């Protein structure tokens, strides 16, 4: 994936404006085993804290990783994985120097559990692998052609927690119900029931997705309709690395924008990123405990 650099601005509401530079990160090929992203949950003074443990392999097959929390990225050193056992040293850069925390844990039946230990005490953690949305999910703007006629429609594809797909078809012409949505190896299929005025008919779609482009054909007893579509928000979908500078120093953070424009800002779930021409925005509130709330409002210019 080609690397892109874009300037963004993040506003921590009522606090400070942080200039950021984003670089899109290549997703690479998913690897089996321990590699991938793990959602960790920890109980800290009665409050549940969330972090993401991101593990991957370098070109030489050596395991590497990062720990991602609301404050940014932490380097992992001495990363070891033997059998079911996992250990590493988390290194956090503060204004006073490096702060290290040791982790020891294990993975069994797809669950990760372990202990973070430092001079401040121990913290128990439990985690599970993060399942990514199917790449077909999201909103697609389509152009349909039948003989000399041309019209447009919007298709929104969703995935539930079990990765089962469903879709809505929105058009100015009639009402349409989509069923039996399937996507495998870049091939999309579904059935459609249509009602236009007093006429009802069934049709089926078969097509292919390449990147953020959809092509295919709707077939029915009325004939064939060619379909061409593009994903809404394609330019921002992916993993972005943020370089943030403020009065408290510099730090890095990750922003993952999903195909349906939901997102993860570090370990924080964002319901939807808003798009308005050349601007991208999102906002969220984080409970820091002790009546402290962190308001995050981000805007790309």
Beta-strand portion reads over 45%
Radius of gyration: 23 Å
Shape: elongated
What level of helicity do the residues show? under 10%
Poorly predicted runs of 5 or more residues: 1-22, 26-31, 291-295
What composes the largest sheet?
A: 9 strands, antiparallel
Summarize the helices and strands and which ones pair or pack:
Layout lengths: L4 E8 L3 E10 L10 E9 L2 E11 L5 E7 L2 E11 L2 E10 L2 E12 L2 E8 L2 E9 L8 E9 L2 E11 L5 E6 L4 E10 L2 E10 L2 E12 L2 E8 L2 E9 L6 E9 L2 E9 L5 E3 L2 E3 L3 E3 L2 E11 L2 E9 L1
Antiparallel strand pairs: 1-2, 1-25, 2-19, 3-4, 3-10, 4-5, 5-6, 6-7, 7-8, 8-9, 9-10, 11-12, 11-18, 12-13, 14-15, 15-16, 16-17, 17-18, 19-20, 20-21, 21-22, 23-24, 24-25
Account of the protein in words:
0% of the residues lie in helices and 72% in strands. It has 3 domains: 1-30 and 238-301, Lipocalin (Beta Barrel); 31-130, Lipocalin (Beta Barrel), CATH 2.40.128.120; 138-231, Quinohemoprotein amine dehydrogenase alpha subunit, domain 2 (Lipocalin), CATH 2.40.128.120. Mean pLDDT is 83; it is low at 1-22, 26-31 and 291-295. The strands form 3 sheets. It has a 9-stranded antiparallel sheet, with no helix packed on it. An 8-stranded antiparallel β-barrel has the order 3-4-5-6-7-8-9-10. It has no helices and 25 strands. It is elongated, with a radius of gyration of 23 Å. With 301 residues, the protein is mainly beta.
